[in-house]
What does this fold into?
Amino acid sequence: MAFPNHTRYLIIGAGIHGLSTAYHLALELKASGKGSGEDILIVDKTAIAAGASGIACGVVRNNYFQPAMRELMAHSVAVWESDPKAYSYHPVGYMQISPESMHADIASIAAQQKAIGYESVFIEGEKDSSNYMKTLFDDWQAQGITSVLHEKRGGYANNTKSMYGLAGKAEAEGVRIMTGVEVKGFKTSNDSSAITAVQTDRGDIACDYVVVAAGPWAKMVWDMLALPKTVDIKGADGNVHRDIPMWVYWSLQEGTLGVDPDIQKTNDGQFPPVVHVDSDAPLYSDVDGSLITDKMWGIYYKPDFNFGGIQGGAAPFRVETDPDQVQVDPYGADSPEFVVGDDFAHMWCSALAHCQKRFAGQIPKYKNEPSGGIGAFTPDSFPVFDVFRENCYFIADSNHGYKMIGVGKLVASEICGSTSALLEPFRYSRYVQGKLHPVSNSPFPWS
It folds into this structure.
């Protein structure tokens, strides 16, 4: 493929958002008679799914305390369901299992899921919650659980397979995907801030419209666009908090227990929903019985043949390094800094054993291989979907990314002129306006 010197639409990033936007934009242009996929070019400095989308555990859920997130996720689940084969999607469902400190939050989620027609079952009370879990797993033994929200939709997808399935759909519509092309900067017109060309390590590409879908590299592109490094945020008390850093990095904690995935089948021999447990019960070592933590903790896990075992993770931790000094590259398993260590393996495997007896004594089978990565988070840990510099649509997913396959479809509609009510709560202006999303009691920053 000859290196292009012009395209109508240039999309930066060949992950979930870039590929989804390109595919759905191609469909929108064709349906409206305004063009086709041949008007769209995706560039990525490495490869398809080389970033967060390629290492994602693949969980697809609608378990959010924030109404706007919940409605957006319901839309995304429907997109996953539209072609499960191409997206390598497994609709096994999802379970949020929680202590009393989160009861009110989860009850609110259950009620609002019901209100939008998203099928789920809500179990309350310690005895009933335990009995419900034992109908699925006869070895269930987690203590202090007082609610179970069982989403019947959702599940998980195989990360890289789904991205190549999405890329295939985009290319079938005429979209060009060029890898090994690194963005270095932007050119603007003399009389406005609009972008006229994207500068790359292989030459400039003139364009009419830019979509930034850079995932963990969002801050880098944000800085190239000379967008604000800090933001003023109006709090719930009406006070304005000034000069809050726009970006912070969190280190993701995930790994795999190298056992036969069949070990996690339910009592009736079926593959189970994804299990997410938050707990305030003391967590003790499955190795020597010592106390690991008496603070709130959380894990999620699922059997996954793609990963070759029981795969999942725990709450991430904030990277305290100045965001300007954080080294995003090399990314993921290749990073010398941001990969999980022995502490994660000890905690996560002990938490598995805390929840289900079948995992007791299994920690020696943990796959001691590099895993994890970092995410670029916004000040409130929720996405920003908005237009900057007149013709640049910026998708900053704040690490909610992989499950949000439907965002690309909505962004494509907005580019073509239809404002999305589902994306409206995620505008950059929400910070100064004080239109913030409610915060849950979960130990995870994205729940």
